[in-house]
Structures are given as C-alpha cells and as structure tokens.
C-alpha cells in the first residue's frame, strides 16, 4: 500500500492497521499454544471490525469496561468467549456482564463477590476467576507493573486476601470458581517472570485443593507480552513463551499431584501492536538549542505513551526518496505541553521539510484506545489495509462531534 495515497485519502494524522498481520499473529499464538485459550486483550485496541477479526480467528476476548463489552457484543462476539476484567467494576457493569452471559468474570476485590452473586439468576451459575497478586515485579516501566504487593490490582497471596476471596466464592451457590488469574504487567520480553508466576499459582491451586477439596480447571496468566519498537530489539516470541510456561505448569502440577489446568493467556499488544502505523504530516522544522525539532500535526492526544512511560519509537520518512544523509531530529506534537514529544533524537533525512509525510511504527496498541481530545483535537481515523486495499474502520472525529456533547450555554 502507498502510505502517501492513504494520507491523501484519509488525511493526517491517521492510524493504519494491517489486518493480515493481526490475523497471522492470532494464528501464531494458537499454533504455539494449541491446548490453551487465547483471549485478545481488548484494551490494546478495539473497534467492531477488530472484534469481528478476533471472532473469526477463534480467539476469546478480555474486556475491562462496559464500553468494551458493548462494542464486542455489537459486533456479534459470543458472550461465552468473553472474560470481564476490572479492579473497580461498577454495579452497572456487573449487571451487564451477567445479563449478557459472559463466560467468566474476574473477581478483583472481595466486595464484588456478594454483589455479583446477588445479580445471578437463581437458575444459573456464573463462572469466575479470582485475580491473585503473586508479588512479581515485571514490566518495562513502574507504571505498567501490576503484580507486586502494594498496587491496586488483584488479591495478595502473601496477606491471605486471595485465600479469603476463594473461600467466599466457594460459599456462593450461584458462583462457580473456574480458576485463578494473574497479570504481571506490560511490555515484558522475558519468559522467566511467567514461569515464576505459573509455579506460584499452581502451588496456590494445590493449597485450595488441600483446604477445600476443589480442583480448579483453569489457570489464566494474563498478557503483557512485549513487542519490538526499535531496530535490533525483539519481543516475546509465542513459541518461547509456550515452551517455558507449559513446561513449568506441567512439572509443577505433577509435583503436587494435580491435573494440568487449562492455560489461558491474554495477549493484546502482541496481537495488534506491530500491525499499526501512524502517519503524520510535518508542519515545521526548527532549531532549539542543541536540538532540531520536527513538529507534526498530531501528538500526545493520539499517542500519550511517550509522556506517560517514556516510550520510544522508530520513525521514517514516507512518500519520497531523499539523497541527504541522516541527522538527529526530535519529533514533537503541536499540543501546548513541553512533554508533547513523540520521538527523541531519531535519524531522519537532513532535508526533511514541512509537508513531508512521516510514519511511526508499531502503533497498533494503546494509541487509538488511549487517545484524547486534548486542545479539542478530534481523534484520528483508523484505516485497515488488506490485499492492496484500504478501508475506513473508524472515522475521524470532527469539530461537530466535539460540539455535539456540549449541550448549551
């Protein structure tokens, strides 16, 4: 596909996502883990088309809000293949999850156990997973590490809170405890934390069997699998993850005399991330102290990750060939924030000029889903490409859309 043609047809900034790449990554996970359930983490990127791609690829879906659930169901995604997450699910979200008949609801605090049980009809049982905290620090940045003691997610194994939640669920006749869940963090490129989590959770499953006489059939290790954002880096390869984790679970279960639980994993970024490219138009080039700035027509409203986590990206000139050698540029957005930086000190042709098109790689995850309307900028469109054709999935947010929510003076 010509990125120049896409920019001409749909404008800039634009998110472009390669449908074939997404589908092939789904298949890679299913091939590496044929006996596991693969649930795409919708928070990475979700629209109705994406939900449909996941459905036709045989994936399950994990959602963490009523909005994500609504989008998935509006696309016809089967409720039984949906896992509902959230550390603070509202009563309305719990009610909707039960009414829709989602496959499993992840219990994240003891208070929601009674609330959930009260919502389940008398002739039904709702499957749940208990999210536990194994006290493992993993993830590319402290703000995206979610399995250590002292953060908001899950129930601590060390303090006994996880065991208390398990006992409470087992005492609710309308709830069925399907297994344990944990999520370590994001952008993890090493299998060792997952192996350690698997061993801890299987040990906890053995304790539950010994205490309550219940053998849990499922073990959900969440997601957080890293991808390559820069040349020379590598993400977490599904085959390497599968070999290590399945071996750890099998050996640990055998040591406790447990049947091997069915593994559930929830990749999001690893499915959508590298399939995405963001297109920007250069607005200005200027020197500022020791740096040369390239200002583009987007920024932190369509990509807040550099400001939040110091994320780094690969940037390339698109649409023309330059004979000039590279020089370092800092690509910035046009928002009224000093922190509105997209990429620092990236090599681009020395003759880069206003009107040029630049492409930012690996932006399929946590870009559209985290976009805002800061400075009242409309969010960019999402354009899918497949077999040499481009089509609009999500249209650009226009000024009329922004004013439609403003109900009057």
Walkthrough of the structure:
By secondary structure, the chain is of the alpha/beta class. It contains twelve helices and 18 strands. It has helices at 3-10, 19-32, 48-56, 66-74, 91-100, 111-119, 161-170, 192-212, 238-256, 269-272, 305-309, 399-404, and strands at 14-18, 37-41, 60-63, 82-84, 104-107, 126-133, 155-156, 175-181, 218-220, 262-265, 276-288, 291-296, 315-318, 326-332, 341-349, 357-361, 382-386, 389-394. Strands 1, 11, 12, 13, 14, 15, 16, 17 and 18 form a nine-stranded mixed β-sheet that branches. The chain has an eight-stranded parallel beta barrel with strand order 2-3-4-5-6-8-9-10, surrounded by seven helices. A hairpin with a 2-residue loop joins strand 11 (276-288) and strand 12. Helix 8 (192-212) runs parallel beside helix 9 (238-256). The longest helix has 21 residues, at 192-212. The radius of gyration is 23 Å and the shape is globular. The mean pLDDT is 94.
């Amino acid at each position: 596909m010509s990125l120049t043609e896409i920019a001409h047809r749909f404008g800039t900034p634009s998110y472009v996502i390669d449908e074939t790449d997404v589908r092939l990554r789904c298949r890679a996970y299913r091939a590496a883990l044929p006996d596991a359930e693969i649930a795409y983490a919708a928070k990475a990127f979700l629209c109705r088309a994406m939900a449909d791609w996941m459905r036709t690829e045989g994936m399950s879906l994990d959602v963490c809000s009523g909005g994500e659930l609504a989008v998935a169901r509006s696309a016809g995604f089967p409720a039984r293949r949906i896992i509902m997450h959230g550390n603070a699910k509202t009563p309305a979200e719990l009610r909707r999850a039960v009414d829709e008949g989602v496959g499993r609801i992840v219990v994240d605090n003891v208070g929601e156990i009674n609330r959930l049980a009260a919502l389940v009809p008398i002739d039904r049982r709702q499957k749940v997973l208990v999210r536990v905290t194994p006290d493992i620090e993993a993830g590319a940045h402290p703000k995206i590490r979610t399995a250590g003691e002292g953060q908001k997610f899950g129930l601590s194994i060390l303090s006994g809170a996880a065991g208390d939640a398990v006992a409470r669920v087992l005492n609710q006749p309308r709830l069925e405890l399907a297994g344990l869940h944990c999520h370590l963090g994001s952008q993890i490129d090493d299998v060792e934390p997952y192996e350690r989590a698997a061993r801890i959770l299987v040990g906890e499953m053995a304790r539950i069997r010994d205490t309550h006489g219940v053998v849990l059939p499922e073990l959900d290790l969440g997601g957080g699998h890293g991808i390559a954002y820069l040349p020379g880096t590598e993400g977490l390869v599904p085959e390497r993850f599968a070999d290590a984790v399945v071996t750890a679970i099998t050996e640990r279960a055998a040591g406790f005399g447990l049947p091997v639980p069915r593994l559930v994993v929830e990749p999001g970024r690893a499915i959508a991330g590298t399939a995405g490219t963001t297109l920007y138009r250069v607005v200005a080039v200027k020197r500022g102290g020791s740096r040369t700035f390239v200002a583009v027509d987007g920024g932190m409203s369509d990509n807040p990750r550099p400001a939040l986590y110091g994320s780094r990206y690969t940037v390339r000139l698109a649409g023309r060939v330059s004979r000039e050698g590279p020089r370092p540029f800092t690509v910035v957005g046009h928002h009224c924030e000093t922190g509105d930086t997209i990429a620092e000190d990236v090599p681009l042709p020395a003759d880069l000029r206003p009107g040029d098109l630049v492409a930012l790689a690996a932006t399929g995850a946590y870009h559209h889903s985290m976009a805002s309307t800061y400075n009242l900028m409309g969010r960019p469109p999402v354009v899918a490409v497949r077999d040499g054709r481009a089509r609009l999935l999500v249209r650009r947010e226009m000024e009329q859309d922004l004013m439609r929510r403003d109900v009057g003076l």
